[in-house]
Design goal:
Blueprint lengths: L4 E2 L2 E3 L2 E3 L4 E5 L6 E6 L3 H19 L3 H17 L1 H12 L3 H21 L6 E3 L10 E9 L2 E5 L7 H12 L3 E5 L5 H13 L7 E3 L4 H10 L5 E5 L2 H10 L4 E5 L5 E4 L5 H13 L11 E5 L3 H13 L19 H16 L3 E4 L3 E2 L2 E2 L2 E4 L6 H4 L6 E7 L2 H9 L6 E5 L3 H10 L4 E4 L19 E2 L5 H6 L1 E9 L3
Parallel strand pairs: 1-5, 8-9, 8-11, 9-10, 11-12, 13-14, 13-20, 14-19, 18-19, 20-21
Antiparallel strand pairs: 2-3, 4-5, 6-7, 7-23, 12-22, 15-18, 16-17
Helix pairs in contact: 2-4, 2-6, 3-4, 3-6, 4-5, 9-10, 13-14
The chain binds NADPH dihydro-nicotinamide-adenine-dinucleotide phosphate (NDP).
Length: 478
């Protein structure tokens, strides 16, 4: 890690000063990694104005040139992968091994965007299918919306930024990025890469500062045509209330369920569930949280899952051997500690974990939980999973579905009838069979139903959300 340095905001192709400097710390050691100026109203205004000017340039840039810039960005991220990974591990507290995976995934996201930039097209409309269309020729095309405000959370400070910035640029939009206040340094590194990749000035702008001011100024700005937000459900709700008439994509939380049938290799399933529950200290929107075992799977699964949970190496995320680092701050670790205490007071049992040192909370397995306990009903966003015994597979599906959220769910079974029952019944944006709900590939459509959000990401699908359909009708006969 380089020495602590004072960073700047990136507006209209220039690195500029702003308001008071905010410290960014290593989430494990507390050491200061750098400072970033907080954007004031004037910097946010300037960023949106710069993006508006750049949007006009980008909209006319040929697709192959947009694709080429994105491909160069992917190459530059790959070249600097270790610097990116170490920055993520330090500022987000993510174990280095998983920070490296995040960087590889961001390379994929930019690579896919470079390809998708060249396949944005519409289709012809058979106008004469109705009497009013006789004598007309029609087709539609996709046009960029203009300025996209990208507001991102702390838990994937590179790849979740990539999932907004790369498709926005692929589609010919300009972006104003507001990363999470706790993790802006990775976003700053990404802006340097994009600058070097040859983006026109103002194509990407970075403003840092509290969501309640900087975030809301962006969301309510009438020059912003689209808000792409990933974060918590309450903030998502607030954004829909204040955004006004503009496109909004919301990628929110989940209480991700897993259903385990008795016909599977329980050693494998327990190990996969442990990784899915604890990587990034469970601070993943699709982290394994509720595990429903069907019939006789309960006892043998629980024993294996507890063992796999205890095998997780907890400590400094910059240590190569570590699986689980700190949570984003001590307040969050105390919050989950209190949720577990509440569950225990209500009759739940803890089988391992429930230990905290500062911001570090150990992988924790609960059982005998009730559906109304916070650890089950609300997004835990922490390294805590509950194992719940169900009489049979169908009952397990029902309980998995009994949630206000709907991002991803998973089922482990070898039985094809069960697979299709699960696909039909689980009301989630994604259903994963024979892996955990934490599985995601960066080009697949990804997003929630119910309280988990609106819209889809996954490059091609994000491009659809970041473009408008323009219909063209040509009268061909008098
Ligand atoms: P938050 O909702 O607290 O913050 C997300 C971003 O929104 C931050 O940049 C934050 O700024 C900003 N923000 C906060 N308040 C406002 C506001 N009023 N108006 C506009 N912007 C605002 O989420 P976390 O960073 O804590 O991330 C955790 C959440 O993200 C979890 O619920 C998780 O499930 C969800 N998530 C969803 C994913 C998905 O793809 N569905 C993926 C990853 C996470 P600031 O940092 O300054 O507060």
């Amino acid at each position: 890690m380089r020495d602590a340095r004072s960073e700047r905001l990136f507006i209209g192709g220039q690195w500029v000063e702003g308001g008071p400097a905010v410290e960014v710390r290593n989430k494990y050691s507390g050491e200061i990694l750098g400072t970033v100026p907080e954007a004031r109203r004037e910097e946010v205004d300037a960023a949106v104005a710069a993006a508006q000017r750049a949007a006009a340039v980008l909209a006319d840039l040929p697709a192959h040139r947009r694709g080429e810039m994105l491909r160069r960005a992917a190459d530059l991220i790959r070249e600097r992968r270790e610097e990116f990974a170490r920055t993520i591990a330090a500022e987000a507290g993510k174990a280095l091994k998983y920070a490296r995976v995040e960087v590889e995934r961001a390379v994929s996201t930019f690579t896919v965007a470079a390809e998708e930039a060249k396949r944005i097209h519409g289709e012809t409309v058979p106008m004469d299918a109705v009497p009013a269309g006789e004598g007309y020729f029609g087709f539609w095309i996709r046009r960029p919306v203009g300025v996209v405000a990208a507001i991102t959370p702390f838990n994937f400070p590179l790849n979740l930024v990539a999932h907004k910035v790369a498709p926005a640029l692929a589609a010919g939009n300009a972006v104003v990025l507001k990363p999470a206040s706790t993790t802006p340094l990775t976003a700053i590194l990404l802006c340097r890469v994009l600058e070097e990749a040859g983006l026109p000035a103002g194509a990407i702008n970075l403003v840092v500062g509290p969501g309640s001011t900087v975030g809301e100024w962006l969301v309510t700005d009438p020059r912003v045509a689209k808000v792409s937000f990933t974060g918590s459900p309450p903030v998502g709700r607030r954004i829909t209330e204040i955004a006004g008439i503009k496109k909004v994509t919301l990628e929110l939380g989940n209480t991700s369920p897993v259903v385990v049938a008795p016909d599977v290799d329980l050693d494998f399933v327990a190990r996969r569930c442990a990784v899915g529950a604890y990587y990034n200290s469970g601070q993943v929107c699709i982290s394994v949280q509720r595990i429903y075992t069907a019939g006789p799977a309960y006892e043998p699964f629980l024993e294996r899952f507890v063992r796999a949970s205890e095998e997780m190496v907890v400590g400094d995320p910059l240590d190569e051997r570590v699986d689980v680092g700190p949570m984003i701050d001590e307040r969050e670790a105390r919050r989950i500690e209190a949720w577990v205490e509440e569950a225990l007071a209500g009759g739940a049992r803890v089988l391992t974990g429930h230990r905290r040192e500062r911001a570090v909370y150990w992988p924790t397995v609960l059982t005998d939980v009730r559906p109304d306990m916070k650890v089950v009903a609300q997004e835990a966003f922490a390294p805590v999973a509950s194992v719940i015994a169900c009489d049979d597979f169908d009952r397990a599906l029902e309980e998995a579905n009994a949630t206000e959220y709907g991002l991803q769910a998973a089922v482990f079974t070898r039985d094809v009838d069960r697979v299709f029952r699960a696909i039909r019944r689980l009301n989630f944006g994604g259903v994963i069979i024979n892996d955990t709900p934490a599985y995601r590939a960066d080009h697949m459509p990804y997003g929630g139903v119910r309280g988990s959000g609106i819209g889809r990401e996954g490059v091609r699908y994000a491009i659809e959300e970041m473009t408008n359909i323009h219909m063209v009708v040509i009268r061909t006969a008098n």
